[in-house]
Amino acid sequence: MITKVQTARHTPGPWTLDPEYPDEIVAGKRSIGEVRGGRFVGDCEKPEYEVPAEVLANARLIAAAPELLTALESIKQLLTDKMLVRNTEGDHQSHWAMNQIPIVSALAQMEQAIKKARGEA
User: Fold this and answer.
1) End-to-end CA distance of the chain, in Å?
2) In whole angstroms, what separates CA 74 from the centre of its chain?
3) b/e for 82-101, b at 16 or more Cβ within 10 A?
4) How far is the C-alpha of 65 from the C-alpha of 119, rounded, in Å?
5) Edge-to-edge strand order for the sheet containing 24-27?
6) Which residues pair with 24 in a beta bridge?
7) Which alpha helices (DSSP H) does 1-121 contain, by range?
């Protein structure tokens, strides 16, 4: 039997990387996630923790998620409220419509990213 999953709000930010274990993502003092790949290296007296560059990059991206979502939602609201407007000086140019395709595509990607982050996609 399939049941509908209730959409939950994410753990409030900021999310950061644990200074001791940089592949672990924390909200305040609470661990909220880990990107697999770090490992202890060295002797037991003075252990060191090693995290591959790609794992660290993934952890940083995940830790930035709340701020990225907030930024996208702010931009979307500014567009909805018509606070961000285009330059109309080029309206008489024949290629004007073609120049709008990249922004329309980017706005569609932004909308999909917001929906994905909210569990609505």
Assistant:
1) 21
2) 14
3) eeeeeeeeeeeeeeeeeeee
4) 14
5) 15-17, 24-27, 30-34
6) 34
7) 53-63, 65-80, 96-118
Token pair belonging to 67: 């701020």
Note whether 107 and 73 are within 8 A (CB).
Answer: no
Say how far apart CA 109 and CA 107 lie, in whole Å. Answer: 5
Instruction: Please state the domain extents for the chain.
Output: 8-63, 68-121
What would the two tokens of residue 102 be? Answer: 């990249």
Beta bridge partners of 30: 27
**Per-residue pLDDT in tens (0 to 9) along the chain, 121 residues:** 555 555 667 888 888 888 888 888 899 989 988 888 766 666 556 557 677 888 888 888 898 888 899 888 888 888 888 776 666 676 677 666 666 677 778 888 888 888 877 778 6
